[in-house]
Amino acid sequence: MALNRFTEPQKQFIRKLQPGQRATGYVKLFKDFGAFVSIGLVQGLLHNKNISWARTTDPADVLRVGQKIEVVILDVDYEKFRVSLGLKQLQLDPWETFCNNFNVGDKIAGTVARVKPFGAVLEIVPGVEALLHKNEIIMPEEEKNEFILAVDDVYEVEITELIKDDRTLRVRLT
């Protein structure tokens, strides 16, 4: 919406919103970058990165138009009358739970989410990903050259590095 298209009641509504405040709204429409959610007199943006702790590239995979959801106000631009919303912020952070339950040396299962030239990114649980570098695949050299990681394959891996503050998780295939 253009700035001059906001009515005075809409502007007053936005001025009363505060970061951290919860609101109930309805999903109105999807864009590549997220969903617009109607909260009261205005619509706020629920960016893909704030929908779920798991990687979200299409909001329609998680939400549906017309769905009633509770959100948290993440940011309000009082000059441009824009509201940023969060959904995942109302759920436990899986990274925190993971770090409280696992340590370096533990064996876990991971599903290949993306294959890169340097190795693969494994999803351990939704919202927790680990790097499996190609140098961390322990197997005979003659087999290593033929070993190909494929998306959706599941492997047992060992945690080699876990840095909670940086959200870094590195593993090796054993």
Overview in brief:
This protein is mainly β and 174 residues long.
Task: Describe the 3D structure.
The protein has 174 residues and is mainly beta. The chain has two domains: 3-90, OB fold (Dihydrolipoamide Acetyltransferase, E2P); 94-173, Nucleic acid-binding proteins (OB fold (Dihydrolipoamide Acetyltransferase, E2P)). Helix content is 12%, strand content 46%. The chain has three helices and ten strands. It has helices at 8-16, 94-101, 141-144, and strands spanning 22-31, 34-39, 42-47, 68-77, 82-86, 107-116, 119-125, 128-137, 154-163, 168-173. The strands form two sheets. It has a five-stranded mixed β-barrel. The protein has a five-stranded mixed beta barrel with strand order 6-7-8-10-9. The model has no long low-confidence stretch (mean pLDDT 91).
